[in-house]
């Protein structure tokens, strides 16, 4: 959970992994405390109400994928194997990696705006080491998308 507050053109941010009401209250207080010690910025603050988008279109950002740990391991292993077979100069890898992220963003302010959306991000990558004439080079390739 990340919280950003604006107080007298000063910005403060704090975060917590504890979602209990007490922890959220402490996080808000920490953000306020930080804002008190930052320099004022005339451009910092909540935008004027007439500039806010109280209704937002669906941007089609949420595409959940049910991937078990075993399937994720298989995807990462296949990425590593594909990398090893791509070129005979590739002699080793740092492995393959699969990540799947689900996120929720909520924005609210003192003008009564309260908007939120869910999103997903899935990625697959591999990092390889190639060798030629005694010289070695490391590089990687990846793909990332909202949907699988």
TrEMBL record:
Biased composition (Polar residues): 11-20
Keywords noted in UniProt: Hydrolase, Metalloprotease, Protease
Function: Metalloprotease involved in CcdA degradation. Suppresses the inhibitory activity of the carbon storage regulator (CsrA).
Residues spanning the membrane: none
InterPro entries, alphabetized: Metalloprtase-TldD/E_cen_dom (IPR045570), Metalloprtase-TldD/E_N (IPR002510), PmbA (IPR047657), TldD/PmbA_N (IPR035068), TldD/PmbA_sf (IPR036059)
Gene: pmbA
Cellular component GO terms held in the UniProt record: cytosol
One Pfam entry name: PmbA_TldD_2nd
All residue ranges annotated as the Metalloprotease TldD/E central domain in the record: 63-143
Region (Disordered): 1-20
Metalloprotease TldD/E N-terminal domain sequence ranges: 1-35
Family as reported in the entry's similarity comment: Belongs to the peptidase U62 family.
GO biological process, one term: proteolysis
Protein name per UniProt: Metalloprotease PmbA
GO molecular function: metallopeptidase activity
């Amino acid at each position: 959970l990340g919280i950003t507050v604006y107080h007298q053109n000063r910005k403060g941010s704090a975060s917590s992994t504890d979602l209990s009401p007490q922890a959220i209250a402490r996080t808000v207080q920490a953000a306020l405390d930080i804002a008190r010690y930052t320099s004022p910025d005339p451009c910092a603050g909540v935008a004027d109400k007439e500039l806010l988008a109280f209704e937002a279109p669906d941007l089609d950002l949420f595409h959940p994928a049910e991937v078990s740990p075993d399937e994720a391991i298989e995807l990462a292993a296949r990425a590593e194997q594909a990398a090893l077979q791509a070129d005979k100069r590739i002699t080793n890898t740092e492995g393959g990696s699969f990540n799947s992220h689900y996120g929720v963003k909520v924005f609210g302010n003192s003008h009564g705006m309260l908007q939120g959306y869910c999103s997903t991000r899935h990625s697959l990558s591999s990092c390889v080491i190639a060798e030629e004439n005694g010289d070695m080079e490391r590089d990687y390739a990846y793909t990332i998308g909202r949907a699988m």
